[in-house]
């Protein structure tokens, strides 16, 4: 089976909030986001977690907005706690996308989530705080890693400059979005089909992986947002890959032979020049990359929309 072969060279992560999927495919880690939790929170089998979060929120001091924020934080953590009963590794829990340009707010929210995990008996070593790969998000991660020893997962990453800034900030992990890069090129260029090895998302992650390994950065790469199994297999050997239930199922059923395509030792001989980015250079390079600029802003907006939908759902229960 392709999935079992892949697991011998890459840490497989489940990109879902669905516990049954995790039990079936036995990933090492799991990632969540507002969109995934919105989908899970409305399902009957997870209502006990929603109710527990709402009960917690009602007991908190402050106005309705404060109670709602507390309930949302608790819900994210309760899902994370359940996930950690299934996976042996770590869970990624996302900071509200509406804090993507607020360094101080992101740090405060991250520390609150870690505090809530601690109250549930979960060590911070088993949690990755997900932050958008904006300049502010990256600097929030730098502070969390250096001052608080909190591990971070920088998400919505579409460009090389974002990856370089994350590595220089010393973050634990990045999540470059393979499929959303492909989506942009299919929508905005005349090419409508790419072989896996020519896929612009695959090429982006390969470049980042090779750069990190060549210059011995500690930050690890977790390819994310896949559109097909070809993209996944093309990145075999990447540190981690976070994969949706549908593609996990396809890989599990596939008999294709998986070969390592990314290799840390081979990366050492790549012809790459080391970059150093300050804020001005980062913002200029990101601005010059139309795809990354479009997809970063679009991703933040979409996560924010789903966060609001989830809040609306929870608020109704909070005030029932």
TrEMBL record:
Its EC number is 2.2.1.2. Pfam families: TAL_FSA. Signal peptide: none annotated. Pathway: Carbohydrate degradation; pentose phosphate pathway; D-glyceraldehyde 3-phosphate and beta-D-fructose 6-phosphate from D-ribose 5-phosphate and D-xylulose 5-phosphate (non-oxidative stage): step 2/3. It catalyses: D-sedoheptulose 7-phosphate + D-glyceraldehyde 3-phosphate = D-erythrose 4-phosphate + beta-D-fructose 6-phosphate. NCBIfam families: PRK12346.1 (NF009001), talAB (TIGR00874). This is Transaldolase. It comes from Daphnia sinensis.
